[in-house]
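@channel anyone free to eyeball this complex?
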Amino acid sequence: MTRIPTPVLGEFEQMVMLALLRLGPEAYGAAVCGEIEKRGGRGVSVSAVHTTLERLELKGLVKSRVGDPTPQRGGKRKRHFEVAALGLKAVQASYRSIRNMADGLEDLLGEPA
Amino acid sequence: MTVRPPRLAGWLLSRAIHDRRREELLGDLEELFQVQVNARGRVAARRWYWRQTADAIGDAIRERRPSTRRAKARTSLRGDSLMQTLAQDLRYAVRSLVANPGFAGIAVLMLALGIGANATIFSWVNTVLLNPMPGAARTSDLLQLTYLYRGDVLPSFSYPDYQDISRAARQVTGIAGHDDLAVGVVIDREAERAWAELVTANFFDVLGAPVVLGRGFTSDDDKPGTTPAVVLSDAYWRRRFNADPGVIGRTIRINAQPITIVGVAGAGFLGAVSGLSYDIWLPIGAQPIVMPGGSRLEARGSRWLALVARMAPGASREQVRAELDSILDQMRTTWAGEKRYVDHRAAAFPLDNAPDGGIAVLRPVLLILMAVAGVVLLITCANLAGLLLARASSRQKEIAIRLSMGAGRWRIVQQLLVEGAVLAGLGAAAALVALRWTSGLLIGFAPPSELPIHLDVSVDATVVWFTAAVAIGTVLLFALAPAAQSAPADVATTLRDAGTAGRGFGRHRLRRALVAAQVALSIALLVGAGLCLRSLDHATRMTPGFQADGVVVGWLDLFSAGYTPEEGRAFYARVIDRVRTMPGVESVSLSRRIPLGFIGGSYSDVTVDGHVKAEGEPEVVGLNYVGPDYATTLQIPVVAGRDLSADDRADRPRVALVSESMARLYWKGRDPIGGRFMFGRPRKDQEPQWMTVVGVIKDSKQRSLTERTQPHALIPILQFYASTSVLNVRTAAGLTTIAGPLQQVLRELDPRVPFYNVSLLSDHVKAATFQQKLAGDLLVVFGVLALALAGIGSYGVLSFLVGLRRREIGIRLAVGATRADVFRLIAGSGAKVIGAGLIAGLLLSIGVGMGLKSMLIGIEPTDPITYAGVIGVLLVVAAAACLMPARRAAALDPAITLREE
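replying in thread with the prediction:
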């Protein structure tokens, strides 16, 4: 039996995936943007978030479904995204490698040990 | 209220984004936009939205063209194709301009002004000089024929002259004659004024102007006594007949004569006089019945027709002129007995250089303005070249890096040129947008006139091409020098030194030369503007000898209403009596024409009782037919005797007023009052028609403000009669108050008599200063623009040089130079540049003054006040431009500047 290799996430992809995990099953583009801005402390291009989400879905890391329109969106529908099983693995792998790499550097990185 | 995202951005997005995710992306953007509005306000939110739009569009483009990206990545190792590098440069240029919005904005604004000025003036040149006769075919083959008499142009021919010449001429395919005439037209019992051109039958054929409905004139129409025909202009046909094709064959009354409509001319054809638009054309055979004063078709001495000839294929203007001269020689021989055509020669002018009419007035002004606009563009280019040089210097390190990485020099130059082209393109686009408005400004300068002036400036393809060409030329001018300079010869040195170098003062000779050139050119422009304004000022304060302010004028045409001289004189008397009693009217009179109007005066030779003509004495005196109280109404001082009165009627002894100069000339040492003179020479078969001088009036200007005082006489219109005249009303009430009641009174007296063009005499007198006003106003605009550019340029160059010399200045200060020394050093180097510009500019200005000489009134081309004023203004601007950088240099802290390295 061949194992599907866990895909490697790019830096921005990690941000998006983490945001999806935080937001839960109701996550959608604007919420992801807001989360990255709030926690990641940086402005993002909405278009870039969408492109990334689409790419992640193509790789089978996230699932999406079309939601309901709301008035503050000018009556346009949302697309909700949710992390798929493979996606969760990929995030775990990324996080592990980051943690491993950062191990012992807590003083330098200003993190509590 | 919710704030909506920018609509244009939304539209762009909905076009750019793939269908697949359009809805959710737009929705997300809108939702986040509201968040931005609440958090950071509307303006910031809009800016955010636009940034997001740009990102999304960029992503979409990248997504759609993955293949080209890969292809480029492959080929870039082998060297790119021109199109690819151009596209790259274009992107790079746009990005680097967006990154420097201040620089880009100023550059585009300057270019828009420079290119816009040229496009505007060119649109006028295009209309007036390049399209002198719209609607006619191949106007470059058309010539205006005139006589030359002792160097003066005599533009009119008699009908017999015309017949002789057109029969004999072989170098032309045809000659057409024309003359203008204001007529009264009655259509369905409704009377109105129209401008007619009396033309020979071949008129439309010679000009190549199509008659689109019905027919043109045939040679039968030329014969006197035939039932007259009329051709309508397209505009008149639409206005008065609602473009009804059934008008052909209808009869209308023109100057009380029944006349049949036979055709409608093509749209766009306005007539044979540039700048005027006629309503109708009448065949010359109709002249005796529609024109006052009887038939002019047989009299060889009556010159009234203007001639236009079309050159035969292969013939040149000189050949036409030479042939005309030889025809004239024959005519002179034939008529030697009557001493006709003595000292006459022939001349042939291209239409765009006609010796009279609107073109003669506008041509010199337009040519001057075109040159001036070119100069403004040169200054703009010099200024921009300076700005780009400064940018290029600060980018030398970047460029050196690119060169060392293997970029070709041409590649760098190309990139800088593309950057220039983007700027010029934006400037030209802005200029074209503004042109829709600025091209129409010309008509605003047109003086009021009784003539049907038509200055409809249209922006056609020629203008757009010209603008594009100017923009391209501009790029070459302002971007090439910096581009060439910025490809440094020695990459290694540049990499080491760039940005810090204290050398390079000499290398910036080009920039200093550019500033000096700007100063010189702006001085020349300002001197030109100053001379025109001083002329204008001089002219408006010059008393022409009468007081135009407070006089309302309006034209009367009794001929078209069918009056006989007896009826006309009686009508004039009634008009005067009636208008005098109107409230607000101080005095009223009539005159054949107004002084200083566009239409020239009449002249006659006179015989003065008891005076023997001396050698070199003027042969003619100026004449005007005027009503009672004319001198009073125009406030021309009566120095002896009396003004004309209502009693100077046809049944009383003939009288006249003479000007002081006429009195001095003919009644030297005698009392002119009671003296007698007559028109022409006494003839044996006729009792002399003497007029008795009853008053002497001060001299006044008649045709132009610059004319030498000319003897002239005023004779009573109630005794001599003229069928068209001007009602002169002096009133304290304004034009708007009196115009309506005047119209009303005239209608009550006789509704058939056209009373038109009611206006202020002072506005007409302004026509005398039309050239100075047009040139002065525009030169001031251009001059101020140029000076501002030159000031900014000087300031920029000095600031830049100070920046380059920070280290040197630091060292000087460190080794003991005082701040005053530094100040002097920098201010001095600025003064040197500006001084050089000043000297060059003054030399240039002398040339400009000579060029303007014919337009100057009351001042010399070297008018000291103008020069002093311009130098003063320049010194102020120069001081401001030099002192600020110099003060900054003097305030440098050597400890800081030396540590910077």
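from a first look: Residues 82-132+359-494 of chain B form one domain.
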